[in-house]
Specification:
The complex is a heterotrimer of chains A (605), B (292) and C (576). Chain B has 292 residues and is mainly α. The N and C termini of chain B lie far apart (81 Å). Chain B is elongated and about 90 Å long. In chain B, helix 3 packs antiparallel against helix 4 and helix 3 packs across helix 11. Chain C folds into 3 domains: 169 residues, Jelly Rolls, CATH 2.60.120.10; 146 residues, Jelly Rolls, CATH 2.60.120; 160 residues, no CATH class. Chain C has 18 helices and 24 strands. The chains are: A mainly alpha (605), B mainly alpha (292), C alpha+beta (576). At the A-C interface, strand 2 of A face helix 15 and strand 21 of C.
């Protein structure tokens, strides 16, 4: 090994790692020659010296650096005795490293540009711009046009393609071609918040699709999944998780909106179903016994979705309320005084001039005596008097026009009758046929229309009559007992919805996704049943809202206490059930796929 | 004689040659750079955290930061080429290179969000990034371990001179063997040389063993001597001992070859993959801006 | 070499590039008539280098105007001067301010031109532009000539209100505090710097128009070697001047007034040990594997009685104390150090006789001033505050701690001011240092990354730019020289004749001879001897580059440094 004490050390030549080639003999584990290759990396072979003729002798002229004159001396013909055959110079390590780098870079450049798929449309190798697989929902229909399905500048020529780097190329415009929403696509929650004075002064920038929905993340990528932090961009202060930071639910959550039907759960469950004094004739004690503790006796749990629909009237309410309907009669006319129905028909107020009223009635009796039922056609709506026969009308008309009593008879189960009503007063009255009695429906329709009348007087009359009709104790058919809230609304048209109990609406304000009862039933302590989340609130004044007076919806107090966050947090917490924003809340308002004719074909493929 | 002059002739005695002023300077600079890098990474992490909550273009910006870091890394090579410009000595740039390299690792994952990207060319970027990073770590390990071992071999040799030295040792060994045969009139040593040591002296051997620091080669040499011992007379035995001494010197040469080779060859992975990484990163920058 | 592919060029000779090409035979004749030269026996000079030849080729006649600075204190120089006519003054003390002396800034190449060369250098080793050879004189001939008249604050030099015209005959004298002395015609000055390769000890300027014969070192050496009278005169002048100039400069005596110093100087003896050409014995000793300390001359031993304080004014000395069967080096001494203070001071204080606690030996050569004890007791010790520690205390240190110093002193690495020290534990053998050196020197590295090693410290084979550069001694042409201000040792490729004297002289084998080639790659061959033309090459400390030594800049791991080892060793430098 090189030791500084070795003699002749100073004749060691410099080591030149900066040159590209070195003597090839070293490569074969021999001694490098001191001359080295020339600049181009060639070696022509070398002789150790060029002999010189001194007198008649050739002498060696090997330089001191290579060891001085050699012992053997030149050959007799004057050539050096130590000619080295050429070597194959090899690259130095440094130079080899440079070559590897250059070749690798060149190959890369070629690979980027040259297409390895023959017949490819773009000049650049599609693998070189492959950003990842599309999600499976988008992959199918975009196959034909490839990248150009969404990226417009993909088909540009090379110059334009490169220049596109300097412009903004948001693909969101293409998204909107198929994806439609209830409001503007790029605005938060698809609503224009700028118009809402609650957000006055807050900057509400447009949010393009690509900000939250990232494609090219593989076929299994769920595009609709967005991180909770994205919601935090507007909804501040941000909270760490549902359990710890989410605000408490609104004060009347799941119990804010009254239905159309007056049903006091508390009184039914704690009183009517329980207390024997309510088990009058016609009321089913067996049903009451079940219903008092089993919600599924009235609510169709097996068909549960967001709402748990009620079973039909026949299955539920009829068990107790069947008889009440028939017991309460619709008093059409009374001989001596103006009835509510009469005032609506005639347009004469009951509090008005008695003489006029009496005269009008007398007139009516005479018409009825003469024409029977058709005398009532002057009032218009025929369906108000469905099932009223001529004979009944004549009977009533002829008796009352001569101030005589009506003949004694027994009223029928249901239908029109002129005689003594259940209170013992003479009247032309109607007994409901069944729960959805058409006559009563017609009458309420008329009254509702009357409530919407432009004329003040007519409106007042209708209101008075409505109040009578909807009276809980005396209203005909006992409709008002349950249906008052829905019927009291004024409307010129009738859809029938006013009778129905009306499902709770998922409010757009909370952007809540429909709650799924099936997933949650019997998840919590099975013994609690529905009561696990819907707890009755003993001191709520349920009836406060259901008055004839106009009361705001906000005053409604449900039988059930509002559902508090802790109910949900029991399971929806970190480490247990999923509790991201998107579990319950939706960002987009009414997302629809608007697949146009051309796209439809593609989408089908 | 003034008071000042006299007190300045305080006698200082040698301190053990532990570290030069330059070494201390470099240590301080390194510490400063590490602190700066940690702070920078914290700032970037905070930025990413904020960005996700404010719908900023987080990937774009972390991408640009990463690009700048990668360019900073590559600038070490450029600095070496532009040595004559007054941009600071290369040792300071290497410290920056270490720190930027360490910084690039978390930054990379913060930018991609995944260990293996979806797109084909992005997978190549990931591949070259990983090879560059892993080769860098391997290189650091080599640079920490091998120089001390090379010193402890006892004497130094320049890598490019190893073939010549090897050839000299080979000649020396062969001359010794020939002399032994001539002197003792027995060809035992010569025959055995052809069977065993000839292979050994041909080129560097037991390279892996020298890299790992095991003593395989020493054991081999000793065993060869032992194997022949029973067939030798005293003179031959002395020749074999001399041959063993030459073999040990050659063994030291092998160790130099192996370890200095490793110190040079790790760069064959690191530099080309870094270059490819930079080229692909530039391409990525262009493509991303074209399509978004 | 393939002879068909070689360029023929005659081998350069010693006087191919004379000191002054304008020296004519007439000039030489005039010189030969002067008594100084007439007394020399010209027959003693060899035919290859006759006296006339020396005078014509290694000397030049320079004319100075009043005010011109001939030599600057602090510069390095390779020439001595003989005053032919006119009045010349030497500034004794204090030194003239720096801005007056008017040093020209060292010219550096522009970074961009260096960068361009770094990228386009020839990929063939040792390419030279042979068309440049044999044309120009040495670059040191073109000196920046400064003048006292260029000083900005002339009043400080000459006094207020003095009229200074460009064509005055004689310069007015310098005012207080500057003390000057007149050097009459026939005086030889500047020999200290030329002989000892040290800095100029004083500034010398022309008072009137004067003619001066500048003899470069080669001339001085040859004449001194061949003529006894010259040798004696030179040595006498050398010693006297050295004493006069170095005694007041010594750190230990700074602060004494001029009168006291003169009294001391009158009694002080000048002693010199060893020889300037110490490298010959040193290298011979190395080859025989003799221990360095065996070859050193003892100045004094432990136990000897001291009779005077020794001040070191040149060369190196080793301070040792016996340890076991050997001697342990406690420290080394160089210019500015002293020896024996502890013992003499003790003796003075206690009144008892004290002996030397340590020994002193010579490293190469050693120049001492010996101040006798009575002078010390009388003039020096009363004012001296007792030194804080003792040199002998260093002997209590662990042996391990001084291993590096012992080794560095043995190898004489202490000589270097820019030793290339590589920490092999940090070095990853990447060779970036060699590549950087090559790239900034037209593709040719100037050092080898290998050298004597102690544990992890390697001193590589790169010129150390020694304090005492022995390589300068034998150069026939002066191609190897010291630059003016920095003391960097440079080989002028244009005038190097490839004789290899410096190569053989360097004790550390840091200079190499290389065969040169043309741009095309052809070797350049001497047609007469059929040997390739050689040039000596070595590290030039990148003195022409704006960025400093490329090797140190390029080392990525901070393993390589160019340092003076004394900053690392921090030995007990007494008086430092």
């Amino acid at each position: 090994m090189s030791d500084q004490q070795r003699p002749g050390y100073q004749v060691d030549t410099y080591v030149r790692p900066n040159l590209s080639y070195c003597c090839g003999r070293g490569g074969k584990w021999g001694k490098s020659c001191w001359q080295g290759p020339n600049g181009e990396g060639q070696c022509g072979g070398a002789s150790e010296c060029s002999p010189v003729k001194e007198g008649d002798r050739w002498e060696c002229r090997r330089p001191k650096q290579a060891g001085g004159a050699c012992a053997e001396g030149p050959r007799p013909d004057g050539t050096c005795c130590n000619v080295q055959p050429p070597c194959t110079p090899r690259r130095t390590l440094r130079s080899m490293r440079g070559m590897v780098s250059k070749i690798a870079a060149l190959l890369l450049l070629l690979a980027l540009i040259i297409g390895i798929h023959p017949g490819t449309k773009s000049f650049v190798n599609p693998t070189a711009i492959d950003a990842g697989n599309l999600s499976s929902v988008h992959a199918g229909f975009t196959r034909q046009n490839g990248c150009a399905s969404c990226h417009g500048n993909h088909i540009n020529e090379a110059g334009g393609w490169l220049l596109a780097a300097f412009s903004s190329n948001d693909t969101s415009e293409q998204c909107v071609d198929c994806h439609r929403f209830a409001g503007p696509a790029m605005k938060a929650h698809n609503q224009d918040h700028a118009k809402n004075e609650k957000y006055a002064g807050q900057a509400m920038a447009d949010v393009s699709c690509a900000v939250c929905h990232n494609e090219h993340k593989g076929a299994d990528n769920k595009l609709s999944k967005v991180s909770d932090q994205a919601c935090a961009s507007c909804h501040k202060p941000e909270f760490g998780n549902f359990q710890r930071g989410h605000p408490e639910f609104s004060a009347k959550f799941a119990a804010a909106k009254p239905g159309n039907i007056y049903f006091d759960h508390t009184s039914h469950i704690q009183d009517y179903f329980v207390n024997p004094k309510h088990m009058k004739m016609g009321r089913d004690p067996q049903f009451a016994a079940i219903a008092k503790s089993d919600c599924s006796s009235c609510h169709a749990i097996d068909k549960a979705t967001r709402e748990i629909k009620l079973k039909s009237y026949e299955q539920v309410c009829a068990n107790c309320h069947k008889t009440q309907i028939k017991e309460r009669e619709l008093i059409l006319f009374e001989p001596e005084r103006m009835t509510a129905a009469g005032s609506v028909l005639t347009g004469l107020s009951r509090d008005g001039d008695e003489e006029i009223n009496t005269k009008a009635l007398k007139n009516l009796w005479q018409s009825m005596a003469a024409s029977g039922r058709s005398a009532l056609s002057r009032f218009g709506a025929e369906d108000l008097f469905t099932g009223l026969s001529d004979s009944v009308a004549r009977t009533a008309g002829s008796a009352w026009s001569r101030s005589k009593d009506l003949p004694q008879a027994d009223p029928p189960e249901s239908g029109w009758f002129a005689g003594e009503n259940s209170e013992g007063n003479p009247a032309l009255f109607y007994r409901a046929v069944k729960h959805d009695d058409p006559v009563l429906q017609a009458w309420f329709k008329k009254l509702r229309a009357g409530l919407a009348d432009k004329d003040d007087e007519k409106r007042a009359l209708a209101r008075e009559a409505m109040n009578d009709f909807l009276d809980k104790q005396t209203g005909p058919g006992a409709c008002g007992k349950c249906h008052a809230a829905g019927l009291r609304t004024a409307s010129k048209t009738s859809t029938g919805q006013e009778w129905k109990y009306a499902a709770h609406d998922a409010t757009a304000k909370d952007q809540l996704k429909p709650y799924s009862h099936p997933k949650h039933l019997n998840v919590r302590d099975a013994g609690l049943g529905c009561g696990a989340c819907h707890q009755m609130s003993a001191d709520s004044k349920y009836g406060k809202y259901f008055t004839p007076k106009q009361v705001p919806v906000e005053s409604y107090e449900s039988n059930f206490a509002a559902i508090r966050k802790e109910t949900c947090v029991d399971c929806h917490r970190e480490g247990q059930v999923v509790s991201s924003c998107q579990t319950c809340h939706a960002y987009h308002t009414k997302h629809e796929l608007n697949v146009g004719s051309s796209n439809k074909e593609l989408a089908k493929k | 004689m003034t008071v000042q002059d006299q007190t300045s002739s305080k006698q200082e005695f040698s301190a053990p040659l532990a570290g030069t002023p330059m070494a201390r300077e470099q240590a301080v600079k390194f510490l400063g750079l590490i602190i700066f890098a940690v702070l920078a990474w914290i700032a970037i992490t905070i930025f990413v955290w904020l960005g996700r909550r404010n719908l900023w273009a987080v990937s774009h910006i972390t991408g640009y930061v990463l690009f700048v870091v990668v360019l900073g890394l590559v600038f070490l090579k450029a600095r070496k080429r532009l040595l004559v410009l007054p941009l600071g000595p290369v040792r300071d740039w290497l410290l920056l290179h270490f720190v930027l390299g360490a910084l690039s690792l978390p930054l990379y994952f913060q930018h991609t969000g995944t260990f293996w990207p979806q797109g084909r060319y992005e997978q190549f970027i990931a591949l070259f990034f990983y090879t560059a990073s892993v080769s860098a770590i391997v290189g650091i390990i080599f640079q920490r371990i091998y120089p001390r071992r090379l010193i402890d071999l006892g004497s130094q040799v320049i890598y490019e001179r190893i073939p010549t030295e090897l050839a000299n040792l080979r000649e020396e060994a062969e001359a010794l063997v020939l002399q032994a045969v001539r002197e003792t009139n027995s060809d035992t040593v010569g025959r055995y040389y052809a069977e065993s040591f000839q292979w050994f002296f041909k080129k560097p051997r037991f390279v892996l063993s020298h890299l790992l620091g095991t003593g395989r080669s020493l054991g081999w040499i000793q065993m060869r001597v032992k194997v022949l011992d029973r067939f030798l007379n005293q003179t031959e035995r002395e020749y074999m001992h001399k041959l063993e001494a030459i073999a040990m010197r050659k063994n030291g040469l092998d160790a130099h070859y192996a370890m200095q080779g490793a110190l040079k060859l790790w760069l064959f992975v690191h530099v080309p993959s870094a270059i490819l990484l930079v080229l692909l990163a530039c391409w990525h920058l262009i493509v991303v801006n074209i399509y978004s | 070499m393939n002879t068909q592919q070689s360029l023929r060029m005659e081998r350069p000779r010693r006087w191919d590039a004379p000191f002054d090409p304008a020296m004519t035979d007439k000039d030489v004749d005039a010189l030969m008539e002067r008594p100084e030269f007439a007394a020399i026996d010209a027959s003693r000079f060899p035919a290859a280098a006759p006296l006339r030849g020396i005078l014509q080729n290694d000397c030049r006649i320079v004319e100075y105007k009043p005010g011109d600075i001939i030599v600057r204190e602090g510069d390095y120089g390779n020439s001595a001067f003989l005053i032919l006519s006119g009045a010349v003054r030497v500034v004794i003390s204090p030194s003239l301010p720096q801005q007056v002396l008017g040093r020209a800034p060292e010219k550096k190449r522009k970074a961009w031109s260096v960068l361009r060369d770094m990228l386009t250098y020839p990929r063939i080793p040792e390419v030279r532009d042979t068309s440049l050879y044999g044309t120009s004189a040495t670059d040191i001939a073109h000196l920046h000539r400064a003048s006292l008249l260029d000083a900005t604050d002339k009043a400080a030099l000459f006094g207020a209100g003095v009229n200074l015209t460009a064509d005055m005959e004689s310069l007015p004298p310098l005012v207080e505090p500057y003390k000057t002395a007149l050097l009459p015609s026939g005086t030889l000055f500047g020999e200290i710097a030329a002989l000892g390769r040290v800095k100029r000890s004083a500034t010398v300027y022309a008072e009137t128009t004067c003619k001066v014969l500048e003899l470069r070192w080669q001339a001085l050496r040859d004449i001194k070697n061949r003529d006894d009278a010259w040798r004696d005169k030179i040595e006498q002048v050398y010693r006297a001047n050295l004493l006069k100039t170095q005694l007041p400069e010594h750190p230990l005596l700074k602060g004494l007034d001029a009168e006291t110093l003169k009294k001391i100087a009158d009694q002080t003896l000048f002693e010199t040990y060893g020889s300037f050409e110490w490298n010959v014995d040193f290298k011979a000793g190395n080859k025989q594997n003799r221990r360095a300390s065996e070859m050193e001359q003892q100045v004094l031993r432990e136990g000897d009685y001291p009779d005077g304080l020794l001040l070191v004014i040149g060369g190196f000395g080793r301070v040792t104390v016996g340890l076991g069967n050997g001697d342990r080096t406690l420290t080394y001494l160089r210019e500015g150090d002293h020896f024996g203070l502890d013992e003499l001071f003790d003796a003075w204080k206690s009144g008892e006789n004290k002996v030397y606690e340590t020994s002193l030996s010579v490293l190469g050569y050693l120049q001492l001033l010996r101040i006798p004890y009575p002078v010390l007791a009388d003039l020096v010790f009363p004012k001296l505050i007792e030194p804080a520690g003792r040199l002998i205390d260093a002997a209590a240190r662990p042996i391990e701690d001084d291993a590096f110093m012992e080794w560095a002193v043995d190898q004489r690495f202490i000589n270097g001011t820019k030793t290339m020290l590589i920490d092999m534990e940090k070095c990853v053998r990447c060779d970036d240092c060699v590549v950087a050196c090559a790239e900034t020197h037209n593709g040719n590295p100037k050092f080898i990354r290998n050298g004597p090693t102690l544990d992890n410290w390697m001193v590589a084979n790169s010129c150390m730019h020694c304090v005492d550069p022995v390589c300068l001694i034998g150069c026939p042409t002066g191609a190897i020289h010291r630059t003016l201000s920095g003391g960097t040792v440079i080989i002028n490729d244009l005038t190097c004749i490839g004789c290899g004297t410096c190569v053989n002289a360097c004790p550390y084998e840091n200079i190499r001879l290389v065969p040169i080639r043309e741009k095309s790659g052809q070797q350049v061959i001497d047609p007469v001897s059929h040997q390739p033309i050689m040039k000596a090459t070595k590290c030039d400390l990148c003195s022409s580059l704006p960025s400093g030594p490329s090797c140190e800049n390029a080392c990525a791991h901070g393993a390589l440094q160019r340092i003076d080892l004394q900053t690392l060793i921090k030995t007990a430098r007494i008086g430092a």
